[in-house]
Amino acid sequence: MDTLFHTMQVQQALTALNSDLNNGLTADEAEERLRQNGKNQLKGKKKRSIFLRILDQFKDFLALILIAAAIVSLFVGDGLKDAIIIIAILIINMIIGISQERKADNALEELRDMSGPKAKVKRDGEIHKIDACEVVPGDIVILETGDYVPADIRLISCVNMRIDESSLTGESEAVKKNANTAVPEDAVQGDRINTAFSGTIITYGRGEGVVYATGMNTEMGKIAKLLEDTDSGKTPMQEKLNSLAKSLGILCIITCAFVFIVGLVYNLLGYGDHRDLIEMLMVSVSLAVAAVPEGIAIVATVILAVGVQKMVRSHVIVKRLRAVETLGSTTVICSDKTGTLTQNKMTVVKVCDPETIYDVTGVGYKAKGHVVAEGMISRNITLMSEIGILCNDAVYNEKESSIIGDPTEGAMLVFGAKMGQYKEDMAETHKRIHEIPFDSDRKMMSTYNVLGNSVIMNTKGAPDSIISRSSSLFIDGEIVPMSDSAKSHLMQLNEQLAGQALRVLAFAYKRYESVKKIDNVEDDLVFVGMMCLMHPPREEVKASVEECRTAGINVKMITGDHKTSAAAIARILGIIDNDEEVLDGIALNSLSNEELIEKVKTVNVFARVSPEHKVRIVTAIKANNNIVAMTGDGVNDAPSLKNADIGIAMGITGTDVTKEAADMILTDDNFVSIVSAVEQGRIIFGNIRKVTGYLLGCNIGEIMIVLLAVILGLPVPLIATQLLFINLLTDALPAFALGMESKEPGIMNRKPRNPKDAIVNRRTMSSVIVRSVLICIASFAAFLYGYFGAVAPEGFDRHLLAMSMCFFTLVACELLIVYPSKSDTFLGAGSGLFGNKFLNIATLIGFVILCAVMFVPVIGNLFSVVPLNITEVVICLILVLTAVAGFEISKLSSRR
Length: 896
Known about the structure:
The protein contains 31 helices and 26 strands. By secondary structure, the protein is an alpha+beta fold. Helix 23 links the parallel strand 25 and strand 26. About 1% of the residues have low confidence.
């Protein structure tokens, strides 16, 4: 039945779907149909089963080595115990890996849900904006330029509607639609001009239609494709970390092979203590497994996912994880003015006819209780209000003081309500029969409305465009010719009003004697008046602009508004000083690409720009080796968002096309949220770098301990099960907790990070070396004391005591040295030493586990350790605290 809706007339389709054109479905009907038909989405990719996830954990090369080691140990001496412990550690590692993988998957799934497209539908006679997945058959859907079509729809009415169906049919040209026709049953998709298909894009015009197919019953699953745009692949940072882990892994394996070979040669030469070759093999294998920092990439993924969730609380939805990495390197933020730097409630504050300016009270969308002006109002203002209401696609709900649609058009409806004029009433007496939609080249919009036997073309747009196309003036009921002096006066008035940080729109009309006389030409207009609107600057933005400047980030305003209006707002917010240059679209056209590249170094406000200008500006800024974040909301902003390093769409006013092109979405359309996201991006990268440095320092320290003992001809200070336990404990607890660090003091006082910087830079490598050397010295000193200086408990040899002291010191050292690892520069309390509650809990749990292993004989026997006496514990702790203090003191040189 679905495929036949294109053969039906409009009323037939409505009847077949049991839908009401005027009121749409009731809430109860919609709920029942949603239950019957399911959500309007394609079936996602089948989730990997728990069995496959487990299998993936054991497919890792290092895990296979450990399994082999466990099998070998079964046939060697008391190997059953070691085999059980190795398998147990593998299972725990598997559980942690699967848990973190699912945690990251769930975080990304939440992001996909939040960034899904929306749809405007009629329910219970009112227009509601809902998630596209909740659209049901029979819904009456409102479609506008820039919208994604949420389902397969039989169009009811449309005005100049063109739809890009290239993703469905391969046809590059947008298809012109006609609702008032039926097409043959065998018509192919591209010829169904009365139908809009799910996932296609409205590129021009507007209309409405009735949904006849949703979800898996639609012709195409574009919506599901949109939801998959959140990256599930590895980001460049994750690739770098994987590569780093592999390179270090090879180095570690070579080192461990060297350890085994040295032990073998020493045995043959009879040098030092005799070593059991199987034991040496097991230690070498375990050392290789424990030392390779394969957990870095896993930890980084979790840090990224958790950081992205934190951004959601700051009103930022990240669609692509790679954007998080880029945020910390951002050097330029190009922001639109309206709604981002200013409040998103456009308000009419002044109106004027050719002779008089009138003030309008009230801010926002409340009309009741506010007046347009005190005293008499000219007929021009009344007529201008009518034009503003008729040439308008927004919807105003006076009861809820809210609008659906463009904020500027919404402000006109609020102004009309203050005048006692309402769109619902006027639509009855002034039926719209045609329109010429707004575009950024003409900077105008016109509608054709029937009035009696005549047709009136109602036009609104930029004052310079309207004035230049007007040949007459409407002055309090009389039409007089437009003289050059009158044009000059109106242009000056526009400049004067725009200089007050006001957005100025002009209104005009043109009368036709009949429908047959319509010529679709916007000239020979009758000028009526101008309306002054304002988005009040957001109070919090000025401080954020200053914070950006401190952080080495340059803020640029790129807007389609008038030059003087843009400059006025920019000065209020501190983006420019009084004498700084403002470049408009006309001046920009005269510049070559090379000249523009130089110009963008000093110019921070670009006004009266077109979408093509925005692309040129972003390209020029990037040519100066900048990392650019760009905001946008309209369809035509999509190219510049894609051209920027980070495209940022507006969640409230942004079209679906813009959100599709963007890397991030601001749910509150607020510039402050961009700055918060940049800060969070810096925090995330900093935490990944800290965790990387910490894990490398600990792992290299472990290698150095064993290597030093082998070279000196001493017994191995750590056996296989101990090394694996240490690796599990430090990777699972402190490393993950360290990744939850909050921001360091002054993080927004630093210059942006060079995106080419390695994760392990010179400073990080220095800290890795110092950390590993100190851990090695402390642990090896404990081993030497236990082997040569302490008295072993009765029934135990000195090697077992020495291993126990080395084990205790190494674990305690790795658990405590994580605290100075919180910062490479700040000392002690300067880095908020105990401010990370996750780290405090992780460290506490780590010490509880360590004490259980050391002092509960049953557990201690599993790991070949013996309880230490008070003296031995104190000596170990002194060595640990000395290593931790030494690492903290080493940061003084780094700070200098």
